Structure formats: C-alpha cells, structure tokens
Amino acid sequence: METIDITALTPEQKKALQAELEAEHKEEKKKKAENKKILKGIEADIVLGEIDFFIGIRDNVEERITNLFKKIETAIELRAEVYGNTKRDQDSHTFTLDDGTASIKIGWNVRPSFNGTEAEGIVKIREYVSSLAGETENEKILMEMLNIAFKTDAQGNYDPKKVRDLNKMRDRANSELFNEGMDIVNDAMIDIRTSRFVRGYKMVDFGDGIIKRVNFNFSID
Q1: How much is the mean pLDDT over the chain?
Q2: Which residues pair with 191 in a beta bridge?
Q3: What is the pLDDT of residues 87-119, one digit of tens each?
Q4: So what's the pLDDT on residue 220?
Q5: Which residues contact 58 (CB under 8 A, 6 or more apart)?
Q6: Three-state DSSP class for 85?
C-alpha cells in the first residue's frame, strides 16, 4: 500500500483528500444505518415468527405443571407413610421407574437471600478481618475474605452464595468472633422459591435399534 506524505501535498490536494475521506466516512455511516435497519427487520421477523409458538406451549406447560403439583400430593403423603416419616415441605420430589428408563423431578427453583439481620454478623466478621492487618500471612487471609464476601451488587446487597462460601474459612480463621459472625449470617439466610419446574428424561426407542435418552426441562412463574 502506497504511503502518502501529507506534508508534500499542495493545499488543493489536501482539500481533495479531505473531501474524499469525508465522503468515505459518510458512505460508511450510510451503510451502517442501512445494515442496522436490515438487522432490526430480521430480529423482528424472528420474534414475530416464533413468539406465538412458545407462548402457546407455555400456556399448555403451565397448566400441566400446575396439575402435576396437585397430582403428586398423594404420592408424597404415601411415600412419607411408607417410610415412616412425617411429610416434609421440601423443594423438589423425584419419581423414577424401577428400571431407570424414565424419571420426573418436580419442584421449586430456589434463590438464596437474606432476612435483613446479616449486617450484624458481617460487622463481627469485619471486626475480625480488621484485626488481621499487619502480618503477611494474615493479610493474605484478609484479602481472600474481602474478595469472597464483601462485594455487593448495584443495590448494595451482599451475595448470599459468596458470603456462605466463608464457612469454609472457619478452621483457618480459628476465631470465636469470626464464628459468631458466621452463625448470625447463616441464620439470616433464607431460600426464596422463585418458580416451579419439571425436568427429567425418558429412554426413547427411535427404531432400528437406536435408543436414546431424551431430556426435558420446563419452568413456569
């Protein structure tokens, strides 16, 4: 590619080059705008062409899962009776054929959260962490704990999963203050049921000796 020495160009040549560059830039902007318009059209076609199919399926799946929740109540109660247990309010139940060729798991998707008292425990944990400053090995522990637990989201909330990970630091910390803080934090954790699901599999015979495991997974609000 030939290199142009700008300093060697005459004013007229510089003006012509500038006009050429501006024209190229204008053409690029025009092409980009056209491509964006085409892209929007393709995206709209995808949405409008497919959305009703999935909405229709969702309506059917929602009704089926709702009915399935009602249907398994008898099995849950009898299962507890057969094994001599009290009926438990657990988040999911699994039903599998004896030969393992089909299985259904139905239940609730769960998201961990806090009840608001976690801050009292974190105060104690921070107090312990602050006491570690000044020694090389302790500073490593300090930074590890800070990076794991004390990063908050945009709303200033702590991540329950990350704070929960601090439990594995108990032996290394070897601190009653740290343990007290973690106990408070753990007691403040609650699991919130967010949506219902059904998932499972079936070994399907496709003929010609071909048997494959077919999986499914559906969730509804």
Answers
A1: 84
A2: 112
A3: 677 888 999 999 999 999 999 998 888 888 888
A4: 83
A5: 220
A6: coil
d(CA 72, CA 85): 17
Two tokens, residue 199: 């998932």
At 145, list the tokens. Answer: 């704990």
Side chain identity at residue 127, one-letter code: E
Tokens of residue 110, six digits: 């769960």
> Which are the contacts of 11, defined by CB distance < 8 A and separation ≥ 6?
none
Please, which residues have CB within 8 angstroms of residue 1's CB and are 6 or more apart in sequence?
A: none
CA-CA distance, 205 to 121, in Å (whole number)? Answer: 55
Contacts of residue 37, Cβ cutoff 8 Å, sequence gap at least 6: none
Q: DSSP label at 152? A: B
What is the rounded CA–CA span in Å between residue 103 and residue 64? 16
Q: Are 92 and 68 in contact (CB under 8 A)?
A: no
Helix (H) or strand (E) run with residue 166 in it: none
Residues found in the chain: 221
Q: Is the pLDDT of residue 47 over 60?
A: yes
